[in-house]
Amino acid sequence: MWHSSAMREAAAEFQRGSYDVVVTVGTLPEAQKSEQKEENSAARAAEQLRKFGVEDNVIQVVAIPSVDWHRTYVSALAVKHWLARSKVHASGINVFTLGAHARKSLVLFKRAFGKEVPVGVIAGIEDSYEPDRWWLSAKGIYTVLRKTIGYLYAELWPLPDDLLASTG
User: Fold this and answer.
1) Count of domains observed in the chain
2) What is the DSSP secondary structure assignment for residue 121, as one 8-state letter?
3) Which stretch of 10-14, 64-68, 104-108, 158-162 has the lowest confidence by average pLDDT?
4) What CA–CA distance (Å, rounded) separates 10 from 72?
5) What letter would DSSP give residue 125?
6) What is the CATH number of the domain that holds 67?
7) pLDDT for 86-99, tens place per residue?
8) Range of the domain at 155
């Protein structure tokens, strides 16, 4: 789950910018596939944004199936499909994510959206380790190395365009 400081940072960005829609994306918990109605991570992110002042009427919650692989790419495809279904014309999108995950997110959202929609990324500040001195903590080393491998994988590994359809 997002750190409170990152959600505050995201809310401030959305309030500063000229955004018509803020889409939160997250997975459905495994329990929700049964009859329990647990709140999904996209809904929790939306609630945090409301708490920090983002107006409810601009927030859209998009839940994706619980997937073990390619969550970022599935999220990008879910946003693309939601935009198409909603008939919302996006002249561009900005993806807000945490620090070391930003490069991978940029690559995968660009892949999902193609050349028709410009994609930018905003890297929120990680607060579970010092980003400027990540090599001094086990959490920093783990996160940066894992995200770097994920970025290389995103750049080099082919992913099917219909990945979202195969997860649902």
Assistant:
1) 1
2) E
3) 158-162
4) 18
5) P
6) 3.40.50
7) 888 888 888 888 88
8) 4-167
Q: Which two tokens stand for residue 21?
A: 């829609």
By CB atoms closer than 10 A (0-12, 13-18, 19+), residue 37 is: exposed
Q: What is the DSSP string of the chain?
A: ---HHHHHHHHHHHHHTT-S-EEEEEEPPHHHHTT--PPPHHHHHHHHHHHTT--GGGEEEEEE---SS-HHHHHHHHHHHHHHHHTPPPS-EEEEEEGGGHHHHHHHHHHHHGGGS-EEEEEEPP-SS-GGGGGGSHHHHHHHHHHHHHHHHHHHS---TTHHHHH-
Residue 11 pLDDT greater than 60, yes or no: yes
